[in-house]
Amino acid sequence: MQSSEQYQEQAMKFRYLKEQRDMFQNQLEIINASLGNVLNTKKTVENLKQGVNEGDEILIPIGGLVYLKADIKETEKVLLGVTQDVIIEKSLDETLEFLTNLIEQHNKQIQFLSQQLQNLEVNLQEVSQLLQSYMKS
């Protein structure tokens, strides 16, 4: 009887660990997608710094596959969304510094989540082996 209780306990632990792993994998995917967006933004700001002039026409993505044509009015500053409701004006250098810091934060989060996933995988393997041993007995 005790073996059956141990099996149930390990089975619940296995399900919990799988849910944790899935949650961390989803978070990792979100952070990776966000990192890709930040890297693209940084590259765009670097390109602005290297040679966009006032009056140049550009395309601005507004969502999905839709773009607006726009003329550049200011080449030394951009508007930076720091929260959903707050937009501030920053120089290109300040914006690049902000984006670099954001990239570092993303990389730290990716490193943390990757380590957590590795730990969960080890735990899942151990519990899986225990469950298999209970099934053989």
Can you give me a brief rundown of this structure?
The protein is of the alpha+beta class and 137 residues long.
CATH architecture: Orthogonal Bundle
Largest sheet: 2 strands, antiparallel
How many helical elements? Answer: 2
**Alpha carbon gap, first and last residue:** 12 Å
How large, in whole angstroms, is the Cα Rg? 24 Å
What is the helical fraction, as a range of percent?
55-70%
Instruction: Return residue spans where pLDDT drops below 50 for at least 5 consecutive residues.
Output: none
Top CATH class: Mainly Alpha
Strand content: 15-25%
Which series of helices and strands comes N to C?
Answer: HEEEEH
Structural class assignment: alpha+beta
Shape descriptor reads rod-shaped
CATH topology: Helix Hairpins
Report the strand count.
4
Count of the separate structural domains: 1
Strand arrangement within the widest β-sheet reads 1-2
Mean of pLDDT: 92
Describe this structure in words.
The chain has 137 residues and is of the alpha+beta class. It has one domain (2-136): Helix Hairpins (Orthogonal Bundle). The protein is built from 2 helices and 4 strands; from the N terminus they run αββββα. The chain has helices at 2-51, 92-136, and strands at 57-63, 66-71, 77-81, 87-91. A two-stranded antiparallel ribbon has the order 1-2. Strands 3-4 form a two-stranded antiparallel ribbon. Helix 1 (2-51) runs antiparallel to helix 2. The two termini are 12 Å apart. The mean pLDDT is 92.
